[in-house]
Design brief:
The complex is a heterodimer. Chain A is mostly helical. Helix content of chain A is 63%, strand content 0%. Chain A folds into two domains: 21-95, Helicase, Ruva Protein, domain 3; 98-133. Chain A is rod-shaped, with a radius of gyration of 38 Å. Chain B is 39% helix and 20% strand. Chain B is elongated. The N and C termini of chain B lie far apart (68 Å). The chains are: A mainly alpha, B alpha/beta. The A-B interface holds A 45-46, 58-59, 62-63, 65-66, 84-89, 91, 112, 115, 119, 122 and B 5, 8-9, 12, 16, 31-35, 103, 127-129, 131-138.
Chain lengths: 156, 178
């Protein structure tokens, strides 16, 4: 026990040192792709229809720096996104979440396409049906019919 | 059945027209801030003179926090005299006006301050962090904070005398213990 004691203490010290080294390490390096992934989901607040990733504005550049800073501090992309939503509202998201009134944005175009296709199909069917309606056969005098046939055959 | 189909297309267009009518009546720039009613985010900046400017030092006062830029014409130019005039009128009544110059060059910001003779504390937000923390998406934007440090009003155009006085008087009339 007397020999084990110092070794155990030494091992514990080394483990502790390793753990403290691990926690003292600089924050996780964040790739450009990781920043871009979050930035691409956010609206550039001073632009027209541009994402934070695509905008060359100073504001977007500052927002990208904030994204990088928060990711580097260990926040997950969803948490960084939420940070912006908490301050700007869901307006900041280029793709609104699929819930509540927002569902209209997601499903209205689909519903419009379905209704449009149904309408076009209906109209096309109606028009083709009308063309198919042939006039009732006219009673032709058999003698006249025979005369026409003969004239056609003779080519005159 | 045929009669129903005849009415189907006009009926289907009604919700679309209603949506369009709603859209045309709404100002796309008037985005409600989720921060109204919540505690104002703290900040620590430095004024043009180098003095520290923090929100914390003004707790217990009605704070008028104005985001502006020297390139913001004409709105920021219209409201600068209004802010200065009302700062002077209300400073002894527990009201403080703070200016945050955003996305601006230092020289242009300083010239703006000199030109309008602004005497209330003004700092530059060089990193944009304060602007984003307040959900600022344009200038000018002005936040009216009550004495408890909550954001009560976000004003998204040039502040007028009427807006300033009405809002600040209402906040001053509220019980003030933080």
């Amino acid at each position: 026990m007397s020999r084990l004691g110092p070794r155990l203490l030494e091992s514990l010290f080394l483990l502790g040192a390793a753990a403290s080294l691990a926690t003292a390490q600089p924050a996780t390096p964040v790739s450009q792709d990781a920043v871009h992934e979050v930035a691409a989901q956010l609206r550039c607040v001073v632009c027209q229809n541009l994402s934070v990733a695509d905008s060359p504005s100073e504001m977007a550049s500052q927002m990208r720096a904030i994204i990088r800073e928060r990711l580097t501090a260990g926040e997950r992309p969803a948490e960084v996104r939420q940070y912006f939503v908490d301050r700007y509202g869901e307006w900041i998201l280029l793709s609104p979440p699929r819930r509540g009134f927002n569902l209209l944005v997601w499903f209205f175009p689909l519903a419009a396409v379905v209704v449009g296709l149904a309408t076009v199909t209906l109209l096309v069917r109606r028009w083709t049906h009308r063309r198919d309606v042939r006039p009732p056969p006219v009673d032709v005098d058999p003698a006249m019919s025979e005369r026409i046939r003969r004239e056609l055959e003779s080519g005159s | 059945m045929r009669r129903l189909w005849r009415w189907l297309i006009p009926l289907a267009a009604l919700p679309v027209l209603a949506l369009l009518a709603y859209g045309f009546r709404v100002d796309p720039r008037d985005i409600p801030s989720p921060l109204v009613g919540r505690a104002a985010p703290g900040f620590a900046l430095a004024t043009f003179e180098g003095a520290p400017l923090t929100l914390e030092t003004h707790r217990g006062k009605v704070v008028v926090l104005n985001f502006w830029a020297s390139w913001c014409y004409p709105a920021c130019y219209e409201e600068a005299p209004v802010l200065e005039r009302n700062w002077r009128a209300y400073r002894d009544r527990g009201v403080v006006v703070l200016g945050v110059d955003i996305q601006d060059r230092r020289e242009a910001g300083e010239k703006f301050v000199r030109d309008f003779g602004l005497t209330f504390p003004i700092a530059q937000d060089l990193s944009g962090t304060v602007s984003v923390n307040y959900g600022v998406y344009g200038v000018p934007e002005t936040f009216f904070l009550d004495r408890q440090g909550r954001i009560r009003v976000k004003h998204k155009s040039a502040v007028t005398d009427d807006v300033f006085r009405t809002t600040v008087d209402r906040l001053l009339a509220e019980p003030g213990s933080p």
